[in-house]
Design brief:
ExoIII-like; Deoxyribonuclease I, Chain A; alpha+beta; Endo/exonuclease/phosphatase; 267 residues; DNA binding; metal ion binding; DNA-binding; metal-binding; 21% helix
Length: 267
DNA sequence: ATGTCAAGGTAGCCTTGA
């Protein structure tokens, strides 16, 4: 069977609902992993996407995080949050906040996680250490599925550009988060666990960037980064027939600052 | 100089986070 899976950091599912519905109708993914819902799970537009044939599992509290999985292939064994997921302890907080940044589900023949990896803010910031700890927890959480025979993938906004080729100006990023050797080592560790980086093709230009800052005309100038990634196990990666970044969805006003990434499989 | 955006609390702007 042919299966189309996609991931999209939508930057508010509420503000982007018309764009989301329009994109679902045109791209017709079987499974869509969303990040940055910026809406509480109770407020997710379940009915609107149901009318297009999707079941939804959402995990969110209404702030800047929140993740979901939409599926036309069923939605089983839903898990909200990673086992042992670390929380972030803000300066003014008493307790660490275990944020809604991961949700897993089985959609027909495929098991997926939709993840929104912490940004890290700045190297030496507590948020950066939190990011690394979070990635190690993710690696441990997916070990079994990564080594399994069932097609499996972790998709989402990793907030890491895997190589210098995935950044519009590597020199400008030296010493900044998203490109440090330590962050890239965390991705390498995922790969050593049996997950491959499924690199999409760009629809235009020669780099498959997935994110362009809203500021300074970054999108028209194609000053982007590839930080929305798909890490699939061997049964998943072997089944991939195509993958592309839908930069058309980044055009115009009222769009997310990220473009959807589409992965086609023949299972 | 961010050629920006969204949410939330609070009060018609400011702060936070990205």
């Amino acid at each position: 069977m042919t299966v189309r899976i996609a991931t999209w950091n939508i930057n508010s599912v509420t503000a982007r609902l018309p764009k989301l519905l329009e994109w679902l109708e045109s791209a017709k993914p079987d499974v869509l992993c969303l990040q940055e819902l910026k809406c509480a799970a109770d407020n997710f537009p379940y009915e609107e996407v149901r009318e297009l044939g999707y079941e939804t599992a959402a995990h969110g509290t209404g702030r800047w995080n929140g993740v979901a999985i939409l599926s036309k292939l069923g939605l089983d064994d839903v898990v909200r949050g990673l086992p042992e997921q670390p929380g972030y302890l803000a300066d003014d907080a008493m307790l660490p906040d275990v944020e809604p940044r991961a949700i897993g589900a089985t959609c027909g023949p495929v098991r997926v996680w939709s993840v929104y990896v912490p940004n890290g803010r700045e190297v030496d910031h507590a948020h950066y250490r939190y990011k690394l700890e979070w990635l190690e927890t993710l690696r441990q959480a997916v070990l079994e599925d990564a080594a399994g025979a069932r097609p499996f993938a972790v998709l989402g906004d990793f907030n890491i550009a895997p190589t210098d080729d995935d950044v519009f100006d590597p020199a400008a990023f030296v010493g900044m988060t998203h490109v440090t050797p330590v962050e890239r080592a965390a991705l390498a560790a995922l790969q050593e666990s049996g997950l491959q980086d499924v690199v999409p093709r760009p629809l235009k230009y020669d780099h498959p960037y997935t994110y362009w800052d809203y500021r300074q005309l970054a999108f028209p100038k194609n000053r982007g980064m590839r930080i929305d990634l798909t890490f699939g196990n061997k049964p998943f990666a072997d089944a991939v027939t195509d993958s592309y970044v839908d930069r058309e969805a980044r055009k115009g006003k009222g769009t997310s600052d990220h473009a959807p990434v589409v992965v086609d499989l023949e299972l």
